[in-house]
UniProtKB/TrEMBL annotation, chains A, B, C, D, E, F, G, H, I, J, K, L:
<dbReference type="InterPro" id="IPR025543">
    <property type="entry name" value="Dodecin-like"/>
</dbReference>
<protein>
    <submittedName>
        <fullName>Dodecin flavoprotein</fullName>
    </submittedName>
</protein>
<dbReference type="InterPro" id="IPR036694">
    <property type="entry name" value="Dodecin-like_sf"/>
</dbReference>
<dbReference type="InterPro" id="IPR009923">
    <property type="entry name" value="Dodecin"/>
</dbReference>
<dbReference type="InterPro" id="IPR050049">
    <property type="entry name" value="Dodecin_bact"/>
</dbReference>
<dbReference type="Pfam" id="PF07311">
    <property type="entry name" value="Dodecin"/>
</dbReference>
Length: 72, 72, 72, 72, 72, 72, 72, 72, 72, 72, 72, 72
């Protein structure tokens, strides 16, 4: 991180595959409307269960992006 | 929660009546500009005092909403 | 609390009415199978939203009960 | 909060009625000896149970008051 | 989560393969005696090391299940 | 800890003698109904006071035990 | 804080000078797009080091602003 | 705890002997000026070291006492 | 810290200048009525904003002082 | 864990592949200079993003090793 | 603590006797290689159980020592 | 942070001047024996008081450095 100003948003992504895939799902979706995503931090990992099997993983994460001059 | 991607915002609502009313005040106001609010979690409960009486309750909460394709 | 040994369980109750009612709902249901419930502590307060209105409150709580000789 | 110096005390109030009433009970009692109570923050919410019913709510809170020149 | 009452248990699962497999191991084992497991939350991720290699992952998780009428 | 699945319970023990004795009291009582207790972790240490003397210590602890095949 | 509804955003500011200047940098930049910023709270203070010297301070903060009718 | 209002104070006691003795030292000293001390909770346990030996234990604790009508 | 018994109070100081000055403001004011203040610990740093400028810093701190025989 | 004395170090490992690989990377590197690494605990999981893709995962972990007589 | 620079290490000591003895065991062992140990803080207290008896206590602690000029 | 492995150490620096100077004091001293210090995070800010004046600030921080092949 250099001398930019960053804004941090909180996201929840999910995946039937893995924790990493749930993170990537959230990042990819947020990237559609937020430019300049730079880093993330996992806040919570959880999931849903059906018939004794993990149905999907859900990851709550904070993601930071640079605030450019004039934009949001 | 299913396989959508969610975004979480942090809000503060207040009420002279009750903690529940302070929550509802924040949710109702946020609903004017955020579509698809789905859940909330109370982060902090506090309030102001005047002459030995609680003047109003303030509740800090996180609220999650689904990020739809192409929106917000 | 006196010199008994206690066991603590974690419960989630919900109510469309209030936080207090969600607590009471969890306590009443647990009381059907756990004898000697003595105290509770609220761990988390959250809820679901529909159309900008709180649909129900959910309260996560820990509840303690005395372990009697030879039981449970 | 403006540029006063505040002191914060920790209190426990209880009520058979509601969480809000337990807060108000603590604030009202503290107001007898502490001038200038201004705000509170709920630290913990708990209670006692008898026969599967909540007997009373107990709320631990921090309450802040202005330190006036020369007093308390 | 709807208006059921839930009970939450704390479990530790392990796996030589991955964090996800350790979660699944705990869920599958708990499912043998607990009906209606619905969700989990990861509380802690740790593991054991031998000769500079991770021997197995251990995941501490909370898992919630619905309390049905009359059962535990 | 090896590759078993563990379940964790939360207990409160007390003693007029010492913190260690309060821990031992909780473990010994839980051992009457839970097979295979393996470890504990202290969550909170507190106590009651009478006439300026500690009347007893109370220790809240988590205790883990192995879930054997087929049992609870 | 009065009876407005507030929204809270999380920001990271940095400065080669001081912690206070890093806070001010984040506030000033956020003020370009967020009307009615009212308060902040420092969440984390960190920084980067080069050749045994602090190169810059980075402060993560939460900042609250009033949600006016009809706006974001 | 019944329906009194309590006030909580934070104390540090120390002892060359044991953690329990450090708790008792703080409680006994506070009892000289605070009537009706009822319970304590250990917040932190630490100590000083000299020549590879623990010189004394220091325990930070919160202690609660009933606020009687008219007194502090 | 030696073998005295300490009491800890929680204070909020503010300053338009700096975090250090807000700390000093609280300490100086508390020193008017509390003898033997020895140390402090910062619990929270926050502040108010006006027109995109930090108007003042507010620091919540815990401060410890020795309880002398027979006093306070 | 038996009756050895352990020392705990804090490490950060990274990987473009997975969280598990980031853990393994840190453990393997630490093993070059620290004998007898026995366990780890994940403290934080984060990562960097480029063009809407996770570029690499970073895992902060604590790792414990036995202090042998006379060494390290 | 005066104006030295300190370094803090994290240790785990164990004892079949008591929590205090587990602390002392860790301090004594660390003192063989670390000069100038000054203070410790208990981070976690846990232990192992065999046949319903505490087999040994384990204490995780942070210990601080002065960094002298030129040494580690 | 790129794909290096980092080690994190915990330090305490102090200064009679400011929080920033206390951070710099710890970093500068650690830099004498630790190569490649890259970042720090403030864990705790505290200080000592004499005669109602802050005598010095003490900052506890974590500092990270790259583990180079074959070193430290």
């Amino acid at each position: 991180m250099d001398d930019h100003v960053y804004k941090i948003v909180e996201l929840v992504g999910s995946s039937t595959q893995s924790i990493e895939d749930a993170i990537q799902t959230a990042i990819k979706r947020a990237d559609q409307t937020i430019r300049n995503l730079r880093w993330f931090e996992v806040i919570q990992t959880r999931g849903h269960v059906e018939n004794g099997q993990v149905r999907h993983y859900q990851v709550v994460l904070k993601a930071g992006f640079t605030l450019e001059e004039g934009g949001q």
